[in-house]
């Protein structure tokens, strides 16, 4: 019977490690660089992207005229759903660990169940702190200002690049070699 509880303890610890890796992955920086083309003139494309970004809450943070770069910045907030979900996972996982410890060491009485009171808010707090950060978005014009076609290099969080592809690809006729919607990461 003791070996069954020991293996359950081992599995519970593995679940805690999995939760730790999930927290790490959920708050990981996913900045990506994509080259985008458009048959429209560069000024029209840059204005369209700038207005769209400002409507989404991004703020112009300067740029460099010689290098033809526009820089935007914005704050990324944590997902309220993920905070609640991870808090629940942390609480249930901690309670399970407490129950296994009670079975392995009955002399501890009910004290290991207090781990649930620690684990529940801890997972949500860790996610909220790690995922809240300031992000930047850079748009660099690779083609000349006077050309009929625009070639841009955009460096941004993967989710923003997907939003640009979904919302601006038709109006600004944007295209790129590889679609972000089909990439595995």
From TrEMBL:
Membrane-crossing residue ranges in chain numbering: 6-23, 80-102, 108-127
Any Pfam family the entry gives: CCB1
Alphabetized UniProt keyword annotations: Membrane, Transmembrane, Transmembrane helix
PANTHER family from the UniProt entry: PROTEIN COFACTOR ASSEMBLY OF COMPLEX C SUBUNIT B CCB1, CHLOROPLASTIC, PTHR35302
Protein name: Uncharacterized membrane protein
């Amino acid at each position: 019977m003791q070996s069954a509880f020991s293996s359950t303890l081992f599995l519970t610890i593995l679940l805690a490690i999995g939760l730790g890796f999930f927290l790490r992955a959920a708050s990981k920086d996913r900045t990506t660089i994509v080259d985008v083309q458009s048959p429209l003139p560069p000024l029209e494309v840059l204005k369209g992207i700038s207005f769209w970004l400002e409507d989404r809450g991004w703020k112009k943070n300067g740029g460099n005229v010689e290098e033809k770069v526009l820089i935007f910045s914005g704050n990324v907030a944590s997902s309220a759903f993920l905070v609640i979900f991870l808090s629940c996972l942390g609480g249930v996982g901690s309670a399970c660990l407490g129950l296994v410890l009670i079975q392995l060491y009955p002399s501890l009485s009910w004290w290991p169940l207090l781990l649930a009171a620690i684990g529940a808010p801890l997972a949500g707090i860790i996610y909220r702190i790690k995922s809240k950060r300031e992000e930047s978005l850079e748009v660099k014009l690779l083609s000349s200002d006077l050309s009929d076609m625009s070639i841009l290099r955009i460096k941004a969080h993967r989710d923003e690049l997907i939003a640009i592809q979904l919302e601006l690809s038709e109006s600004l006729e944007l295209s790129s070699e590889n679609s972000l919607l089909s990439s595995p990461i």
